[in-house]
Amino acid sequence: MLRYIWTTRWYCLCKAYVFQPAEMEGPMKLKMFGAALLAMMISGSAMGQNTAQHNQTPQGPAVTIPLSTGTAINASLFGTLDSEKNKPGDPVSAIVNESVVYQRSVLLPKGSRIEGHVVRTGGDGEVNSALFVEFDRVILKNGQEAVLNAGIQALAPGGAGPTIPSREKYEENRMAGLSMRPGPEVGAPETLVKPSTFTMPKRLAPDAAAQRIEGGLDRKGFFTPDSKGAFNEPNVKVFTPVSEGSHGTVLVGARQNVRLENGTHLLIVIQPPAPSSPDVR
User: Fold this and answer.
1) CB 67 within 8 A of CB 270
2) Tens of pLDDT, residues 198-229
3) Closest alpha carbon to 252 in 264, 270, 235, 231
4) Would you give the DSSP letter of residue 102?
5) Looking at the domain covering 72-270, what would its CATH class be?
6) What are phi and psi of 98, to 5 degrees?
7) In angstroms, how far is CA 175 from the centroid of its own chain?
8) What percent of the chain has pLDDT over 90?
9) The pTM is what?
10) Which of 38, 66, 164, 250 could form an S-S bond across to 216 if both were Cys, CB 3.0 to 4.6 Å?
11) What is the distance between the alpha carbons of residues 170 and 178, in angstroms, rounded to a whole number?
């Protein structure tokens, strides 16, 4: 529409200039053309500003989402994470794959985006590596934002197969006291919980990195709320404390780098509110 108006104005201007009376020659004719061109430019600029202002979408105020500590969110990684390539401050993003509902109220809609950043990377560069990430806000589908403090409690490659028939069946067996632990091919033995200030040692003994996988992954790629650890990733260990003052997740790799591909299944857990974010170093 704007292009059409500009084309019409330019045509009229040129027509007026060409078909001026013969007695209007030289400087007078040129002055009139210049004045008309200047007027058209000024009106066009004002129209562009009005159009831009009209197209701007007002951003809604920040909202509060009542997610209690320990709330689990099924999501998938957007982009990749690599301890060799990522630097402190690099953004980390995940898409919520399943709405978080409490008493028929949707607290966090499916499709919301959970944002965070890389805090630091580490490792000796020879045998092991580490990647410290944290999530600190969520952006709803309508553009509104909310502050949160969260880490990764469980993860699995995007193409990982299910370890349980369904979450409903898993919960039934759990309530009945029956164990449905994943087989040894999914992970190795006891979850280690480290404080958020966990520092990667220069050398990590093979048995020190042992971590048992808990919970399960269903056929839809959703974790049970109690899932912990790295499914189908025996070389990656997940350390996410939920104690007071803790924040983020440390991913420790038994190889030279920790890498999570785009679409990695994540179970993000809400941690206690942090008084302040850790320094990015």
Assistant:
1) yes
2) 444 444 434 334 578 999 999 999 999 999 99
3) 235
4) E
5) mainly beta
6) -145, 130
7) 34
8) 52
9) 0.69
10) 164
11) 9
Pull the structure tokens for residue 98: 């399943």
Q: Which residue has the tokens 């401050």?
A: 89
Alpha carbons 12 and 34: distance in angstroms, whole number: 14
Structure tokens at 276: 């302040």
Mean pLDDT of 44-49: 43
The amino acid at 43 = S
Helical ranges in the chain per DSSP H: 2-18, 26-55, 167-175
Instruction: Show the tokens assigned to 204.
Output: 């990590």
Tell me whether strands 100-102 and 236-239 are parallel, antiparallel or unpaired: unpaired
Spans of all domains in the chain: 2-54, 72-270
Question: pLDDT tens for residues 58-67?
Answer: 455 678 899 9
Place of tokens 């007026």: 16
Residues 6+ apart with CB under 8 A from 55: none
Phi–psi pair at 27, nearest 5 degrees: -55, -40
**Structure-block tokens of residue 2:** 């704007």
Question: Is 182 within 8 Å of 229 (Cβ atoms)?
Answer: no
Integer angstrom CA distances of residue 88 from 112, 121, 161, 174, 210: 24, 7, 32, 40, 27
3-state secondary structure of 136: strand
How far is the C-alpha of 134 from the C-alpha of 85, rounded, in Å? 17
Q: b vs e for 167-200, b when ≥16 Cβ sit within 10 Å of the residue's Cβ?
A: beebeeeeeeeeebebeeebbbeebeeeebebeb
Residue among 51, 58, 72 nearest 142 (CA) = 58
